[in-house]
Amino acid sequence: MSIEILVSGVAATLTTAAFVPQALHIIRHKETRAISLFMYVSFATGVAFWLLFGCIIGNWPIIISNAITLALALAIIAMKLKYG
Fold it and tell me: Which of 18, 22, 45, 81 is spaced 20 to 30 A from 28 at the CA atom?
């Protein structure tokens, strides 16, 4: 395994895992007043570009982690729109 794959895998795992508690909290409590829609839309756009970049270079840790993070961010955006 190359050092690039190892480092990107560790970084991807940590940054993706960081969003799980936020998503679970919103799902459980249906409370989104304290989060910024603009921030999450901006973040999701950036993650989509990272996902595209991962696809272009063929880096699976970047692809998988950003696909998961994008799904979580889009779920949070949907809940923000639904619950306000």
Answer: 45
Give 37-61 pLDDT, tens digit per residue.
Answer: 999 999 999 999 999 999 999 988 8
Q: 32 — phi, psi (to 5°)?
A: -130, 10
Q: How many Cβ atoms sit within 10 Å of the Cβ of residue 56?
A: 10
Instruction: Please tell me the distance from the alpha carbon of residue 6 to that of residue 44, in angstroms, as a whole number.
Output: 24
Q: For the chain, where are the alpha helices, taking DSSP H only?
A: 3-17, 20-29, 37-57, 60-83
Within 8 A by CB and 6+ apart from 80, the residues are 26, 32, 35, 37, 40
Q: pTM of the full predicted structure? A: 0.84
Structure tokens at 16: 């993706």
